[in-house]
Amino acid sequence: MIKLWENETVEWNVKFDFDGEFLSIKTLVDENFRHILSISLGKSSELTMDRVKRATAKAVKTLQGLGVASLLFDAAPVIELLGAESIAAIAQGAELSDYRQENWKQQKASGLKIFIDVAQCVDADAVLAHAHALIRAVCFARNLVNCPANILTPKEMTRRMTEAAENAGIETQVIDETEAKALGMEAFLAVGTSAKHPPRLIVLRYRGGKPEQAPIALVGKGVTLDTGGYCLKAADSMRGIKGDMAGGAAVFGTLLALAENHIPVNVTAVIPAVENRIAPDSYIPGDVIGSMSGKTIEVLNTDAEGRLILADAVTYAIRCEKAAQVVDIATLTGAVVSMFGFTTAGYITNDERLNRAFMEAYSRSGEQYWRLPDFPEYRSLLDSSIADISNVSSGGCGTITAGLFIGAFTEGKPWLHIDIAGTAWVGSPVFEYQTIGATGAGVTTLYELCKSFS
User: Which residues are catalytic?
Assistant: First the structure.
């Protein structure tokens, strides 16, 4: 964890400059024989928080590669231009790039000591404490997504989330399969009861706002293992099936950060935790199933399971939690990767006020999103001749129609759907603050979104 500098001796000093191209690096030894790494932020007129974050991360990774044990950032130049909040950008860049995923090796790697010199900035302690809460939340989400599926079952994910939530003062409730059946959650159960490890609906309530304020609902897909069911995934797609709960990890991380920073807003997270496996009584293509909303669903693809469990979770959030608005987030479609690659997530919304708030949120977080259209003709691609709706499109537009399927269960509430299938995991880091594996996608943006409603 990055700490404020108090005259500790360090091996390397890192300085930011505005010479040369963005992210260009120079190393030198000054008159006091100190090792200096100078990294360019580009033109001072083009300086942003995201540039500070990326440059910090690159500096950390560069010095890691040299086997350095300790380093010190001189924050004065960026504080002068961007204010005290730039300390948070430096902290995020440093700590997220230094993140090491949980592993089961007998020998553990040693960590890097990172310090920051903030000169006379009076707000530094508060800004850094606030940043640490958000960084811890992102890393918690990364740890969940990186965890092997034989360890992180729905039950184990429930245990980890509820334990951490209760420690943070968040109210918890866990709905098992018997209670879910009583609620009519047939879509959730159709997926979740096909596995040895039973499903759980995890409900977490952060009550930081006024008692009478209806909560924002964050609904996150929590498929801890996705084989595709009887529509079995190809072998080369199987390596990533443990990370299909990244949406659930994102909303959980968001709640943790909100609680730790005491943000005055009411937010409820609803996470349907299931495994999507093959069993003798598994749902199969051609089945017609019910849902908590009362709508019937024609199942045409068992690998389109995320939208099924999210449909019931959204209905639960609206009817049981009385949500004022709903945001769902999921690793939902491979099509979004074909569209945007591994840098950008797609989203759909039915509400312009929510859209503006979301755009402002991701401009602050630095994550990249792109709005997708929701024209009426796309909705007709989900028509079924034997049920109220089909779980896959009859004519392409897979990312859009997957989102619109969930939108069909929102009962007119302001709603926004986010597909992070391309951004939740990287085999090779795209941005400097990423490491191989889970990215913690969505946590910082959802945090900024909820904070904006406080």
Answer: 233, 307
